[in-house]
Structures are given as structure tokens and as C-alpha cells.
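Quick one:
INPUT:
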């Protein structure tokens, strides 16, 4: 549709790749792409409340909910990539050893604060702390913030011993922006959390062909290389 602006509502963990692919699509198609990033729970709430978009990018559980509401074109849904979680420390801190779960627990018990967010990865982090018996041990040291970027901002503002649990892709975004943090290591394999992301065109899009084309681009083999460079495998 001439003059139509495509709105993308996307999870924040895939931000860099989605933004890059959106810019390429905009340049090649002449159709403006406006992208809004939010946590997975926020995307679920916003869509359930009636918010519309042309393309959605979200974890499968959220995309399944949107699909049940009849708000995506089922055949347009495709796999974008997977994000893993890591441990974030201040840029000047000595990175703790994180080779296994025992080392992970020691690192967190030695921190002045342990930070996670309210997104899907943060929900996993909260459950992990409880499972490992760290929730009670850490007590008030646990800090819960709204977004992935807020994790890095908190760690950067509380040197040298605050620790964040965040999506690696979001860590890379904030480092690129000059935030004073670094990735100590991914979570140990035995407690790693892998989040998948899908893209799909919205059934209510006023530019259905363009929406399907953008969703297809986001899930293409060429896009996989772009996402891999941003920490999404």
C-alpha cells in the first residue's frame, strides 16, 4: 500500500538484527518501517488490550497467544533465532569464574547486587535463583528492573560488584552504546536458558503483502547471518 508505514512490535532481545533488517527493507521497498521494542510479557499485554501492528517478533509462547486471537497470518510465521543468557559485570570488574553451577552460585553470593528484569529471561532468572536456593540467601541483594537495558544501566552504576543476568544480545547492544559493562560469560550449560523468537505478519495489516514480505525477510537465511552477528544464533 503506497504511503503505508509498517509497524513492527518486537521483543527487545533481537533489537539489533530487527532494526538492521528493517532499515534494509525500508530502503529496498520504499515503505517506512517503524519498530517498537518491548518485553515479551508487555507485547502479550498490549496485543490482548487491542494494540495492532503489521509484524510481530516474539517468543513462541507469546506468538501462540497472538495466533489464538486470530491476529497473525499463520503461514507467514517463521523462525528468527535463539538468544542465550549471560552474566554481566561492571567494565572495570574482574570477571568471576563461571565454569559450572557451583561457580555461578559463588559469584552471585559474592555480589553486592544481583539484577534481572521482568521479561521472559527475567522470569527464568527468578525461577533459577529460587531453584538454586539463592533467593533466600541473596534476599534484598536481588534487584528487579523493567527491561534488559535497565539491567546493564544498574550494573554500570554500581561498580564493581553488582552482577546482572541478561540476554547476551541485549548486553551487546548496551556495550555498543558505551555502557560501562562487560559480559563475564554465558550461563553454564547446565542452567542455560535459550529463548526462541519467531516473526509473523499481522492478519489486520493494511499492507498485507508488505507485512508478509518483511516477516519473510526476518526469518530468511540471509537474516540468520545478520542475527548471528548480534548474538542471536
Amino acid at each position: 500500500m503506497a504511503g503505508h508505514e509498517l509497524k513492527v512490535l518486537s521483543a527487545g532481545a533481537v533489537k539489533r538484527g530487527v532494526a538492521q533488517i528493517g532499515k534494509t527493507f525500508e530502503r529496498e521497498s520504499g515503505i517506512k518501517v517503524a519498530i517498537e521494542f518491548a518485553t515479551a510479557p508487555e507485547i502479550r499485554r498490549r496485543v490482548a488490550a487491542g494494540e495492532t501492528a503489521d509484524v510481530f517478533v516474539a517468543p513462541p509462547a507469546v506468538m501462540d497467544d497472538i495466533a489464538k486471537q486470530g491476529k497473525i497470518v499463520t503461514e507467514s510465521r517463521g523462525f528468527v533465532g535463539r538468544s542465550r543468557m549471560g552474566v554481566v559485570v561492571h567494565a572495570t570488574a574482574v570477571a568471576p569464574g563461571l565454569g559450572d553451577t557451583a561457580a555461578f552460585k559463588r559469584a552471585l553470593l559474592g555480589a553486592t547486587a544481583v539484577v534481572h528484569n521482568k521479561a521472559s529471561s527475567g522470569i527464568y532468572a527468578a525461577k533459577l535463583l529460587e531453584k538454586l536456593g539463592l533467593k533466600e540467601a541473596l534476599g534484598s541483594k536481588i534487584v528487579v528492573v523493567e527491561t534488559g537495558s535497565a539491567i546493564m544501566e544498574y550494573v554500570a552504576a554500581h561498580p564493581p560488584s553488582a552482577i546482572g543476568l541478561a540476554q547476551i544480545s541485549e548486553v551487546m547492544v548496551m556495550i555498543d552504546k558505551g555502557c560501562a559493562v562487560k559480559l563475564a560469560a554465558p550461563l553454564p550449560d547446565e542452567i542455560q536458558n535459550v529463548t526462541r523468537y519467531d516473526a509473523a505478519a499481522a492478519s489486520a495489516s493494511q499492507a498485507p503483502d508488505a507485512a508478509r514480505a518483511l516477516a519473510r525477510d526476518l526469518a530468511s537465511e540471509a537474516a540468520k547471518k545478520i542475527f548471528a552477528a548480534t548474538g542471536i544464533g
